Structures are given as structure tokens and as C-alpha cells.
Amino acid sequence: MPQRLRYATLLLLTSQLAAPAVLAQNAPAPAAPPPAPTSTTATQPDTAAAPAEQTQEAEISAPGGGTDAEDIVVVGRNIPNFVRATPQIVSVLSSADIARTGEGDIAGALTRVTGLSVVGGGFVFVRGLGDRYSSSLLNGSPLPSPEPLRRSVPLDIFPTAIVGSAVVQKTYSANYPGEFGGGIINLTTKAIPDKNFVSAGATISADTATTSELGYTYYGGGADWIGYDDKTRSVPGFIRNAPQGSGIIPVEQVAQLSNARTTLLQRNNQLPANWSGEISGGSVYDLGTGRLGVIGSVSVSNTFRTRSTTQQDSVSANGAIRNDYQTLITDNRIVANALVGVGYEWDENKIRWTNVYIHDTLKQGRASVSDNYNNFSGLRFQQNTSWFERQLIETQLVGEFKPIDDFSVDVRGAYANSKRNAPYERQFDYLCVARPQGLTVSQTSANDAGGKQCDGVYQVNQRFSPFASIIFSELEENLWSGQADVAYKLPTDRPFTVSAGYYYSDTQRTSTRLQFNYQLNTGGGTAIGFPYNLYRPDYLLSPDVLNNACPLVGTGACTVQLQFVTPQGAYEYDALLRTHAGYVQAEAEATDGVRATIGVRYETADERVTPIMSPTRRLKNDYFLPAATLTWNFAADMQLRASASKTISRPQFRELAPQQFRDPDSDRLFFGNPNLVDTKLYNLEGRYEWFYARDQRVTLGGFYKRIDNPIEQVGFYPGSDDRLQTGFTNLPSATLYGGEFEVQKFFPLGFLNSDFFATRRLLAIANYTYTKSKINASDTCVPNPGDVNGTLRLNGCAAGFGFASSLFRSDAPLTGQSDHLVNLQLGIEDTKSLSAATLLFNYASERVTNRGPSNLSGSGFQPDIIEKPGIRLDLVVRQGFDLIGGRFELKAEARNLTGTQYQERQTFDSGNVVYINRYKQGRIFSLGLSTTF
């Protein structure tokens, strides 16, 4: 609905984050792009007490209907309208809240919300439940994922420039999709501006672990710096068609592949600074009886990050190190995005057409060295060059209408396409040899490189088979969705609203991964001969070597070819998820201050994953999902909320698909399991709220979830020489419970009798979440992540299954769950103009990222893999000023001031510690300037 209060009702707003930055600044200078252009209508907690004061409320676009907030009788004078408008528990981030955090993307901003943490490059965990238990919406419509490893979308690809508000709803209501475990995250893009504007901004930043430090890069294409391939990495037809043929790519075709530009890894001792820029504009026109608005935004960022990481593993029960690598990884990430929105509103109606384009590229160079690995035969050096290009396009049309009083209709439809293209993932493996072919190696000048040194020369040989490999992978996903909602307020003495709706979505994905090993035409496990095997990678693949790979045997005696391989599982799969749903919901006020909402949703879904040349795995289930909430405003400025619901979580495509992928962020291999089943969740929630003063509050809540068949990540080793891989299985059950506490307080400084402090106040916002979970690892048969093809029968279970007790420890926590999450914001800000400094503290306690793999002996299993997020301290300073007719903002940021180290480790009973990943994270300092005219 176009009216702010009524529209907020549709979203079911509460006060978890009540836009304190907006409340503090009556005339804020906007960050670039401009201030939330549509969300300036006031709310008044007590119109009788403060008729002149106005505060800002974020505009939200989301499914479902509701009642008018002004019809609800509320006792408390300080309870804001957007709190009394809903029985649900949500967290709201307006554009001003986002600006205060200084974060460049929504994932970073959401880490400041009670109970939320962000893991693995933008995936949000709500109350310790992994990203698979959270759903993301854009203007109320679902989003597809450009990630082969997830169905959920990484929120770090959404820059704050295009987002007007972000809402996290933690209690389930029937107007939302049934896949609701931890919460729903709804992003609303900016729509109709309040006035014409043009805004631009730029930022430069430095990372102490990366900027002007050593990194590994490669040339690539001429347009790499903006994140687009200029056809340097074009994939020829003979690569795409290799699975249909013999699987052998002859030397003539091997020579046609891009070589030096995608192969030669180079040292860069002076990595550049990070930068970003953006420009946006909007116009509003009077048209007929309404307003027509147009808004557009374009931005680009280019960042470097280097990780000097220790990577170890162990296959023994006592934690003896098997492999120990020192790896230097340099990521160059380029994000380009655009938004075009057109909106028209008249009377109490609004039409919104939104188009979003996001292009996110990761260019990665990686070098590893080890003098401690399985079957050691000399110093080993590996190099990798990779290119991961992700793209998301969405167009959606939303109509919010009120044809007559007391009756509203919302309709929304969307189409979204996401792609991930990763061509030319190259790897080369070298062995240090002191006397190649019996020859003496002499050194004429010192090697100025640090780290481990080769006392001889590096060469490729048959010791590491293959000596080189190349992977081409592609993913494309299309998502169509539509929803219609109606709400009618009955002509009763007390507010009573009935709403109903229908929802449809159709998601289709195709994923392909083609891996090729380099070998000689004499057969597998062979390598280029001396002296060519001493060459660097681009010379190894030069035409002279490709056509004469065994010079000591004879000219042209052997050539280099590619062999198509499928190391595990299917090289291609198709996936589909088609959902139909309907709901009915009633919201009524039983007596003054007491309101109830009861609804039920019927949802049926057909999920299929079809690996090529394999049978389809199909999950076709339907559910009735009830939800009920009660709000009791029992005293002045205080109220209680209670909620109960049943929800579900379906396996994600990557969890069902038997296909191997490497996650470039964790540098770990993942493999799906087609034997997974749906997860059911039973949720209870309670919350106490005290609004002891205007814009200030204390909240205390508790929650409990019983989870049947939760899906967990499990580490496993396919063999004694293989790398650690991550698979998936169902647990019999688990429980999760905990509590949340939040306090917000302002301290006016006018008593200091200073002009500087007359309009300033101190800000303190603190929240704490305690979460505890326990898994049930009984002698129940569950899918075996190491045997997805069903070749083994364990514990009397069916093929491909085994006892949960052989994979898990009972009472261990769920993966991704931290017992403690703490956020603290301390700042000083001006209530009359933009001038603010905020210190942000974040702490997350240790959490399990992977279940420990089973011992190779078949008896027992290793300790779980534990991540230590630690403490993070940030400082954001913002100052606005007017110059030459424009409004400017200068922003300075200091991130990760504690220099917290990243750790992922296993701790064995013997006292041995195995570091799966360990590296230092740099401190980041940035300076930005933006302006609006």
C-alpha cells in the first residue's frame, strides 16, 4: 500500500532496529547515492505529546496484507507506530542505519543486527542457523543464486547504494514462503524520489595485509579490471562437446586454447589500493492525480585481498599432520551494478517496476609450497589461476492497490536470471629436483624470493599425475515467480482483518563442470620430458613443446593432449524446484492492547535434480504450515509477544547434486548427496519490549526450535591420498534455543554549555545473542556423505546409508552456530546536521564449519573443524558540509582494528592442532567523498 504506515503494516515492522541514525538527524546529509528517497513520512509515537516532531520510517515492499496501524489501541505513549503495526519480530535497517555502519554491502551491514552473523563471503546466519535456513527476497520476490554451492544468494553482491532498506523477519507468518528456518531477509530497492537529485561518490582504501604487499596475479584479458572477459577465455566447441566424443582433445586443438594470458602466474610486490565509484540520479514528475518517479544508479568497485595461509590436514586418529602447505592467495574482486526503477503512485495506489543488474567477478592467483605431504619426494610447488564471473539480472513489477476502503490488493511478478562462468581454472604441479637427468645445477645469482627455496630446479614429472589440469564450469539459473494477496477489514467494532494469497515460483538450473588433465599421447599418468619439463607453465604449453614433448626420445615422438575426466559424480546436472502455495490469515484485536494473528499456509513443491546419464532424484512433498502470534500491550510503554509456527527447509540443489566444486573462498571441495530429505522445524518465540523513553528501548527475548532431519556438512576423505572434501547428510534431529537482549540509549550533551555539544548526543546500542544447539546422533540410518553412489552397506542400513552415530557426536552443536554474538555501537552524533563518529564492536564465538571426517580405519571419527571468528573493531566517521550549491559527505573508515586472525582448526585428544585454514587479516583504512545536487 502506498501510505507509509499502512504499507509498513504489510511488512510487519517492529522495533528491533528503529532507525536511530534517522531519529538523530533531522536534516541528514546523504551518503552517496542519496538518502532513502522514498522513506521520509513521519511516525509519531505520541502525537499528543510531540505533535511537531517527526521521525523517518523505512519504506518496505513485501508480500501480504494487514490492518491499519492507527486502528490499534496502544497504551504506551513511547511505542512507535511501526511497532504496534505488527505482531512479528523483525529487524529493520533503513538507508540511514546502513550509512552509519559505513559498510559497502548489505551483508556487512546485517552483521550489526541482533542474532545475525555473516559467513563465507556474504551468506547470512540467523541465530546460528546456516544460510540454507534463510531466504532472501528483493521487493518481496525471491532471488536466484549465482553460486553452484548454494540456493541462497550471497548478500555481499548487493551494494548499499541500491538498497533503500533491509528487513529481517525472525518469526514466521503465513504470507511468507514456508522455507523459513532462521528468518527471511527482504531487501527493498529505492523507488520514487522525493525530489530531483544527482549524486556521485568515490572511495579509496588500503589493506595492511594486501596494499603495496606481495601478491600473485596473472594478465588475463584487457577488460579484467572492470570484471568482464574480452573473449580471452572463450570456450571452444570441442571443449563443450568433449563428453560426447572419445574424451581426448588432440594436440592441434590443445594449441588453440588461451595460453600465457591465463597461465603465467606473476609476482606483484606492490598490489594497488582498492577503489570504488558510483553515480545515481532521480526525477519525480506530477502526472495526472499522482506522481511518476524514475531512479537510476550505477557503481563499480575493484578490491584486492591477499591471504598468506597455512593449510593442513590429517587422516590419523591422533592428528599427525599428513599435508602441510603454505599458500598465498590473491583475490581481485570487481563488482559492477546498476539499478533502474520506475514508480507511479496516486491516491492510495502504487506501481513499481524495478530492474537490477549485478556483475561480480573474482580473479584469483594462487601459489602453494610444501615440504611435508603424503608420500614426500621433494619440495612441491603448485600454482593455480582462476576466474569466477557471477551475474544476476532481475526485473519485477509490483502493484499495490486499494480500490475501496478497507480492501487492498497486492500483486507482484518477477523474472530473474543468474549465471556463473568459471573458464580456465588452471593448475600446474612442480617438483624440486637437485640433479635433473644427473646434471649439476649451479646458481649464478641469489634468489630474492622469501619462503621455502628449491635447492635445484623445479620440473613437472610423473610423480604428480596429472602434471597440469584445466577446468571449465558454467551455471545458469532462471527463476519465475508471482504472488497475489488480498486483505479485507471487516466492519466490526474492533479491528479484524482477513487476508489471503497465492504464490508460485519456478526455478530451473543447469550446471556443467568439465575437467581435463594434461598428458602425453602415449597414455595417462605421463608428463613432458626433459629439458622442456623445466619450463614455466606458458612455455610448457607453447606449440614447440606441445608438438615435441619428448625431445630425448625423438622429434615428434610424442605430443601433449587433454583427457576429459570426471573425478567424482556427474559432470552436468539439471535441477528444478516448482512451488505452489496458498494461505489464509486473520488478524484481530481481542481487547484493548491485545492482538492476535493466526494463519496457515499450504505449500506443495516438486524438487528434482537430474545428473546426466543418471536417474532423477525427486522430492515431492506438501505441507500445512500454521503460524500464530500474540501481542499484549500490558502496561504503559511495555508489551509482550509470543509466537509459534511450523516451517520447512528443502535440500539445496548443490546439496543434492553429485558434482564436485571448489569454493574459492574456503579453498575446499564440496560434493552433494542425492539421498537427502526435507527438514521440518517447530518454532517457539517470546519477547518483552520496554520503550522507556522516546527512541530508546530495552528488549529481551527467547526462542526454541526443534528440527527434524537437519542437513549438516560433513568432512570426508575419499582415500588416503585425497584432499579433504565436504559432503552432506541428514541428522535424525536437533534442538536450538537461546535468548536475545538489546538496549538503545541516547545521552544528550547540551548540559556541557558548549555550542559544539549543544546539538550533539552520545549513542549506545548493544545487543547480545546466546544460542545453544544439540544434535541427536542415534543409531538411526542417515545418508553416508562418502558413499553417494550406494556402493556400501553399513550398520545394516540400506546402500549409501549408515548410522548417524558413526558420523556425529551426540549433543554436538549444529554447524555454523556460535554460542555468543555481541554487537556494540558507541558514537557521538549531531541531531541537526550530518556529523557522526561511531565505534563498532563485533564478537562471534567459535563455531563448527564441518563435522570431523571418519577415520580411514572405519572406526571413529576426527574432531570437528572449528572456526574462530573472534573480535572485530571498526570506526566510522562521517561529516557533511555544503559547497558550491551541493551537499557533500566526507567519510573515513578504519576496519578490523584488532587485526583478528582467521582460524579453522581441529584439536585432537593428543593435543595436536591441525590448521585447516589460518591466515592474518589486514586492517583496512578508507576515505570517501560523495555529493548530492
Name some characteristics of this structure.
5-stranded mixed sheet; mainly beta; 22-stranded antiparallel β-barrel; 933 residues; 11 helices; 46 strands
- The poorly predicted ranges are 1-56, 66-77
Estimate percent helicity.
under 10%
Shape: globular
Distance between the termini: 30 Å
Helix tally equals 11
Q: What is the CA-based Rg, rounded?
A: 29 Å
Main beta sheet: strand number and arrangement?
Answer: 22 strands, antiparallel, barrel
Concise description?
The chain has 933 residues and is mainly beta. 6% of the residues lie in helices and 52% in strands.
Note down, in words, how this protein is organized:
The N terminus is likely disordered. This protein is mainly beta and 933 residues long. 6% of the residues lie in helices and 52% in strands. A hairpin with a 2-residue loop joins strand 24 and strand 25. The longest helix has 8 residues. It has eleven helices and 46 strands.
How do the strands and helices of this protein lay out in sequence?
Blueprint: H1 4-11, H2 20-24, E1 42-43, E2 55-56, H3 81-84, E3 90-94, H4 95-101, H5 106-110, E4 116-119, E5 123-126, E6 134-138, E7 141-142, E8 163-169, E9 183-189, E10 197-207, E11 215-217, H6 237-240, E12 248-249, H7 251-254, H8 260-263, E13 266-268, E14 274-287, E15 290-313, E16 323-346, E17 349-372, E18 380-404, E19 407-433, E20 457-459, E21 468-489, E22 496-520, H9 537-540, H10 543-546, E23 560-565, E24 572-591, E25 594-611, E26 617-635, E27 638-649, H11 653-656, E28 660-663, E29 668-671, E30 679-693, E31 696-708, E32 711-716, E33 725-730, E34 733-748, E35 760-776, E36 781-783, E37 801-803, E38 820-830, E39 835-844, E40 847-850, E41 865-867, E42 870-883, E43 886-895, E44 901-907, E45 913-920, E46 924-932
Parallel strand pairs: 6-9, 29-33
Antiparallel strand pairs: 1-2, 3-8, 4-5, 6-7, 8-9, 10-14, 10-46, 11-13, 12-23, 14-15, 15-16, 16-17, 17-18, 18-19, 19-20, 19-21, 21-22, 22-23, 22-24, 24-25, 25-26, 26-27, 27-30, 28-29, 30-31, 31-34, 32-33, 34-35, 35-38, 36-37, 38-39, 39-42, 40-41, 41-44, 42-43, 43-46, 44-45
